[in-house]
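Hi all, a correction to my earlier message: I attached the wrong file for Copia protein. Here's the right sequence:
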Amino acid sequence: MNTSKWGFLPMRHGIKLSKKQPPKTGQELKRMSDIPYTFAVGCIQYVVQCTRLDVAYALIVTSRYQTCAGEVHWSAVKTILKYLKKTKDMFLIYSGGDLILESYNDASFTMMIPSPNQVCIQAEWWCGCLEKFQAGYHSGSTMEAEYIAASEAAKEAVWMKTQQITYQDDVANC
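and the right structure:
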């Protein structure tokens, strides 16, 4: 890792990961048993929860394969770690202006390996910074997935508005 080139993106474009890519030979199984894949994914998850939402999607993709991780999966995790190393001095800055909440959500059909699903993506922006990023799968119709995505965004907006009111009351009482 120390001698590798630093990553410019948290995930390589066009990478296809699946559960059909586990280690196949005895040598690959031995090598992967010595690799701390689950530990690395857990560390990245901690970083995402605390400060680095920019790697959330890459984490979501790689965390699916903790029980069947192969070389391709480990390479994807190393790409995230390289990106974090390159961008370690970056951080979120919340503007001092109005507390504005923006919510974006989408549900779209995807041909993910091994089965097609609806992908629901939700992003919450607060004061111009990404506050929450969430992605999940839904096996129903596109319309049902859109309704679920909209419902989740509405719930999150209500919760964020409650936080905003509480924050403004706390500032006013200082």
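Sorry for the mix-up. The chain has a mean pLDDT of 77.
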